[in-house]
Amino acid sequence: MKILAILFTVIVLISCRSSYQFTPKGFIVEGDEYFVNVDRNMSVYVGNHFLNYDNNRKTGLQTDHLSKSDKQIIQKLGYSTSGYTVLFKGQSTGDSTFRLISLINNKTSERFKNTKALISKDGFSIKKTDEGMYYYQITTYNNQVIYHAIIPFKQELGKEEYVSLIYIIPEQFDHHLDQIEDLAISNASMYRQHYIFTPSRTEILCPDDSSRGHFDYKIPADFIQRENYTLMKGFLQDGDGTKKLIIYRLLQPGQSYGSFVVCKGIYQLELTDLKHRVIWRDEITVKHDHKSDQEH
Hints:
mainly beta
């Protein structure tokens, strides 16, 4: 029995190494338009078409599971399990027939090592606009159209990094490629010069300066997450009871305070983990543009 257990463990380990892995610490905050990956210090613009995964509708972005069909497509396009990891995969919230998979090549401190595993761009065309450029190729597989975009993320010689967007649609919709082209060129524009990782959102649409307010927040000691990244979110409460995301920040492990400038109003703060499980809540009324003038 002991030998069988050892053999089973070895088989499992080999199987894990030979399958596609997801890059850890990835998330999307609903109401924002960017997928964020803390492990790679990067964001991917996804627009308003992809939200968190909805298990009932089977739509949204996932960071932990690839279907057999997904794996077949990735393999067909030439991605190795050792050279690349998956950032996310998902189905559009507007039309679940549209799918998107994103990968990034693994990086290493050893110069030129990671570039040897880069997927070949032979046969790719170049899409270039005033905003930026990327490589793309359109192919078909199992009655599906594959729009395959490769976007330079970092171009340091010998340590290049590329983000891949693989857009999958049924053949009868092969003329509906505007969405993926917009996503690709938006990311190319974001990455092209001195990209700075800023995982946050601030929406300030106040009528004038006098309607702006400022507040500091401090997380109670019992809720500070000293070993894990967390998200601080601020929602504006509308009169009909709905909540709208106005602000969010990625908090470093152990971080316990911060501040925001927003329009005056009533806000619900939520501290969550990267899976959006709520750790702490508070309600704040912002009346004046003074740090001390907020009510709890």
